[in-house]
Recover the amino acids of this structure.
């Protein structure tokens, strides 16, 4: 049985029933049951139960299993996931809005090919369309289709790479001065978006593009990513640093490159749930993306954030809050923050101003996790308040935590772009855990935080239960802190950002990236 909350006459929240199994979060610090005299943030954090969150994750897994192994936007798996979340929220008494929108759907129809023809014959191992096994290269999302053979031409490469990332290869049109039309551009990852690099290459006459990893520790393997939308008509692949080095020398290497892709327009949706009570001029908002990549069920990315947020919403529904609370489950994140961008773009300016804070929860249970809190110093005014609030929860539990860059790479990006205070939690994706983090959080240094990131193996087995529990408790704690606050952060209107630029520096999930 879950804790059941009622609003006391004196203005505090009272837990009137306690649960026996696996009380999360604060119980880890010795607070086994909700204290009736405790502030609401403590009580809400204590109300969240591990078995309930896992049941949501198990449901997402079942949905994926019954729908081709995926919950990607534009597929039946996503629609069933949306129905599940919306149904739970309506049952809890929320006002639920299903915000539909069209988007450019993409899929790789067959396995790509990349082979060196001259001076030596060499075939590189492809990444399968479902990313079940990574090879030496992978087709980037929204790549065009093509079967081409041509001379490789290096574009502003830095080899060997410097100690710190920062390559600008292909980022500017002048990088292609002297580029021979009909060649295949070899570009180094770094600084600007994949889309910028590919677009500049296509404009210069390249009939294919190979973007290889930059070469620093943690930036050597094959990677996946998106070009942000249709528009690139030539084949574009991401390759390992080793492949890039191999093709860069000798000059005039000839390769064969083939991709087989499809881009169509499909419909997906955001699920928005709002409390019926609370000050509508002070909206406390939290969100997670609900979609997976096509390659897998996305139980960690981002079933974990979606499940944690859903359980917090179900518990919070029992508590009349001082400020209005709004929850969101985004569609189309993996294709470039499409759902959150559509929401923010569609929101009237007067309604944007009413959003006090937006917290984002994306990948909160990575198996080789670190507890990461977004660094509010890079966000709009008020973002530091959210960072400090989340940090205080981990401090209360006597758990270490580290900052992570607030750089627009997940669904907080569109909110940040219009001046809304943002922040949230993250436990790591394809990045590599450091020895220092191993000392703080356990796990394995030198290994990815999530070795199943964007892969078919991102299943229910790809979840760290402790990280899931702690982070869900943190979501509840932070939400209640601001939902009951007389003075939550407030928006500072930002300069308008062109729609095509919102959320562009992204790849922690699905992204464009550097």
């Amino acid at each position: 049985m879950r804790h059941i909350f009622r609003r006391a006459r004196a203005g505090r929240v009272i837990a009137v029933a306690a649960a026996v199994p696996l009380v999360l979060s604060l119980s880890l610090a010795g607070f086994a049951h909700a204290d009736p005299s405790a502030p609401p943030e403590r009580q809400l954090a204590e109300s969240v139960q591990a078995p309930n969150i896992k049941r949501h994750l198990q449901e997402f897994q079942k949905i994926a299993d019954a729908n081709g192994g995926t919950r990607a936007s534009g597929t039946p798996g996503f629609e069933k996931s949306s129905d599940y979340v919306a149904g739970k929220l309506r049952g809890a008494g929320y006002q639920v809005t299903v915000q539909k929108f069209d988007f450019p759907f993409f899929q790789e129809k067959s396995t790509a090919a990349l082979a060196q023809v001259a001076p030596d014959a060499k075939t590189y191992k492809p990444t399968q369309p479902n990313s079940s096994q990574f090879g030496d290269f992978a087709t980037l999302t929204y790549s065009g289709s093509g079967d081409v053979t041509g001379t490789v031409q290096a574009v502003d490469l830095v080899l060997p790479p410097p100690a710190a990332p920062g390559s600008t290869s292909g980022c500017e049109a002048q990088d292609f001065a002297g580029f021979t039309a009909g060649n295949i551009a070899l570009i180094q990852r770094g600084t600007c978006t994949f889309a910028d690099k590919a677009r500049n290459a296509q404009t210069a006459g390249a009939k294919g593009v190979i973007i290889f990893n930059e070469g620093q520790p943690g930036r050597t393997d094959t990677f996946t990513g998106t070009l942000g939308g249709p528009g690139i008509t030539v084949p574009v692949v991401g390759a390992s640093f080793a492949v890039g080095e191999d093709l860069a020398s000798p000059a005039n290497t000839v390769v064969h490159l083939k991709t087989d892709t499809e881009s169509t327009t499909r419909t997906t949706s955001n699920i928005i749930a709002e409390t019926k009570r609370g000050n509508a001029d002070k909206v406390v908002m939290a969100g997670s993306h609900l979609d997976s990549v096509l390659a897998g069920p996305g139980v960690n990315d981002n079933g974990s954030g979606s499940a944690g947020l859903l359980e917090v919403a179900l518990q919070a529904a029992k508590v009349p809050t001082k400020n209005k609370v709004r929850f969101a489950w985004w569609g189309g994140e993996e294709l470039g923050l499409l759902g959150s961008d559509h929401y923010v773009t569609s929101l009237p300016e007067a309604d944007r101003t009413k959003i006090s804070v937006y917290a984002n929860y994306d990948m909160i249970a990575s198996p080789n996790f670190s507890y990461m809190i977004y660094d509010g110093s890079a966000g709009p005014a008020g973002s530091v308040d959210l960072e400090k609030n989340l940090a205080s929860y981990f401090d209360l539990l006597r758990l270490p935590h580290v900052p992570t860059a607030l750089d627009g790479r997940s669904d907080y990006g569109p909110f940040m772009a219009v001046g809304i205070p943002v922040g949230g939690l993250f436990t790591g994706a394809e990045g590599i855990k450091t020895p220092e983090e191993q000392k703080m959080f356990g796990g394995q240094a030198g290994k990815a935080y999530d070795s199943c990131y964007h892969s078919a193996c991102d299943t229910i087995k790809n979840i760290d239960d402790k990280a899931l529990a702690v982070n869900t408790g943190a979501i509840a704690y932070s939400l209640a802190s601001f939902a009951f606050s007389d003075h939550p952060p407030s928006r500072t209107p930002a300069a308008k950002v062109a729609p095509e630029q919102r959320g562009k520096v992204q790849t922690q999930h699905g992204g464009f990236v550097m």
Summary: The longest helix spans residues 465-483.
